[in-house]
Amino acid sequence: MAEISPAVREKFDTLSADLRSVILERGEDLHTIHDLIRVLGDIVKEEGQ
What we know:
mainly alpha; globular; 3 helices
């Protein structure tokens, strides 16, 4: 399961439950807001394929 740092948790918690689940299923740790943005970008790219 992914580790969400306290610095990112506030923003992460504003996402929809479905999106949070997708992010957690990926198993990538989110230490910075840039990590969160990168993962969200990856999800968008994958959905567009």
